[in-house]
Amino acid sequence: MKRFAVALTSCASLAALTASLAGQAPAPRTHRLEATPATVAVGYYWSEAKPALRIASGDIIDVDTLLTNNPTGLARAGVPDDKIQALLKSVVAEVTGDRRGPGGHILTGPVYVEGAQPGDALEVKVLSIDLPIDYGYNGCSGFVPENCERGTPSKILTLDRARMTSEFAPGIVIPLKPFFGSMGVAPAPELGRVSSNPPGRHAGNMDNKELVAGSTLYIPVFASGALFEIGDGHAAQGDGEVDQTAIETSLRGRLQLTVRKGMALNFPRAETATDYISMAFDPDLTK
């Protein structure tokens, strides 16, 4: 009887301690971030970009991204006008001139994360990824252009969101494993406004198909607030974009952004349920 009473007391004390500690750490807030002309950075990462959203470390963002294309290209490929997202039309029409950077991606953000400073790392937990539209496209170019039929528009692929598959051609069914091709932070200020096309130490256009829901990405921080941006949604991709595209589509993601103080990294790293992933980038791959 005494032993049982002691156990009850210990459990009660532990419960009280847990409740006390929980009370000291505020629950993370969830922030909704749509992709609109006011909340996108088209074609660049930049330390001087104006934040679209400010959050506390540990908060969650429920974020939309738009596919990297334009209404004219999608219509030419056969997408009906009523299936082309209104926000994509608005972004392409309104974000022009010097509001566009040298790259081609429509990135949502930047998100300013309170407390992030150079020398820290930004932890990006990919909690979930959903497919808000039922189609994607695949272009054909890349390093073996002779494999592409000249003059043909992008191939539109229907996304079966119930089965999570897409039929590329009769008998060729692709499993859908959506991920964001581009997730990154502002590069060092001295680099200026950099193109969204090549990846770098700031991460960016890594096109890493392993960064699906359940994975965690760690990115070195180079500017105050980190200035996280995200986009280039893919419904599926092989080991790289052999024909220069994946199945490009719009995505909705739920991500938790946490500052890791003093976690000095030279390059981005990632974790999945099964692997640790190291990444490195250089402008000259012959080195």
Strand order of the largest sheet: 1-5-17-7-15-18-19
Give me the CATH architecture, please: Sandwich
Ends: how far apart? Answer: 73 Å
Quick one: how many beta strands?
19
Number of domains: 1
Strand portion, in percent?
25-35%
- Highest-level CATH class: Mainly Beta
Helices and strands, in order, run as HEEEEEHHEEEEEEEEEEEEEE
- Please count the helical segments: 3
What would CATH call the homologous superfamily? Answer: Acetamidase/Formamidase-like domains
Q: What level of helicity do the residues show?
A: 10-25%
Mean pLDDT: 91
User: Would you give the CATH topology?
Assistant: Jelly Rolls
Structure in words:
The chain is globular and about 55 Å long. A 7-stranded mixed sheet has the order 1-5-17-7-15-18-19, with no helix packed on it. It has one domain (28-278): Acetamidase/Formamidase-like domains (Jelly Rolls, Sandwich). The protein has helices at 2-24, 71-76, 86-94, and strands at residues 30-33, 40-42, 44-45, 53-55, 60-65, 106-113, 121-130, 135-138, 155-158, 165-169, 172-175, 179-184, 194-195, 203-205, 216-220, 228-234, 251-260, 269-271, 276-278. 13% of the residues lie in helices and 32% in strands. It has 287 residues and is α+β, with helices and mostly antiparallel strands.
